[in-house]
């Protein structure tokens, strides 16, 4: 059940003096089970891009396909599509509106027309997946901590049993503990349910540590689409786009300039540690 974008262009205010060409001839294919990072400077078009994945925005030109069908074709049920491709916005607590957490999580599956028993089962399973036990069920979502609100919002989308979970800056404003909780949830979802996770983030460290594929958006175009190691190989070009590589990549480069033969393309702390220790051992033995 892939999502495909074919020659997608999107304009704001087309035909007016305020016209802005936001997406420019974008071609992408996303598959279930992937963990994808989407990065780009502010205004690059990345948030506009992800809103095409479930039809919240309609391309000015081009096609968006889900499982081979044009989602803007005549008679296509885009409401049903949003049960398959769930979107969690940058501040997902703004998606919380019911009187208690459990009722909020039930909202999506209830709108899918499910029976009450199935709705209850899905809500309980989703809350369990995100680590919110029964003690949270009757609490107001507005009484939760920032990290708990994010998890409750994610549970509300998961209760619809999506194939894709698209998140726009889900850890924005969270402390390190809250951020780690969210990423633990996302990894569990992918491993246990096979859900594709598509993460928009400004944190190069988070992207390097968790995703398996990075899509770089620059001025409305796809600049790079590859595994993290290959994308961050182009860190000088990323800098020109207002981005960067993870800090450990710069540290590795600095160490190489000082004569230590470390891997210049490390992107995570464990990779850097292993490469530095190996280089020190080789130096010690005169290799």
What would you note in describing this structure?
This protein is α/β, with parallel strands linked by helices. The chain is 39% helix and 21% strand. It folds into two domains: 3-229, P-loop containing nucleotide triphosphate hydrolases (Rossmann fold); 246-287, no CATH class. It contains eleven helices and ten strands. The strands form two sheets. The protein has a six-stranded mixed sheet. The radius of gyration is 21 Å and the shape is globular.
What attributes characterize this protein structure?
287 residues, alpha/beta, Rossmann fold, four-stranded antiparallel β-sheet
How far do the termini sit from each other? 50 Å
CATH class of the largest domain: Alpha Beta
Count of distinct strands:
10
Q: What is the helix content?
A: 25-40%
Give the SSE string.
Answer: EEEHEEHEHHHEHEHEEHHHH
For this structure, the CATH topology of the largest domain is Rossmann fold
Q: What topology, given as strand order, has the largest sheet?
A: 6-7-8-3-9-10
Task: Provide the β-strand percentage band.
Answer: 15-25%
Give the tally of structural domains. Answer: 2
- Let me know the CATH homologous superfamily of the largest domain: P-loop containing nucleotide triphosphate hydrolases
Q: Overall mean pLDDT score? A: 90
The poorly predicted ranges are none
| Shape designation | globular
Return Rg in Å.
21 Å
CATH architecture of the largest domain: 3-Layer(aba) Sandwich
What is the helix tally? 11
| SS class | alpha/beta
Largest sheet: 6 strands, mixed
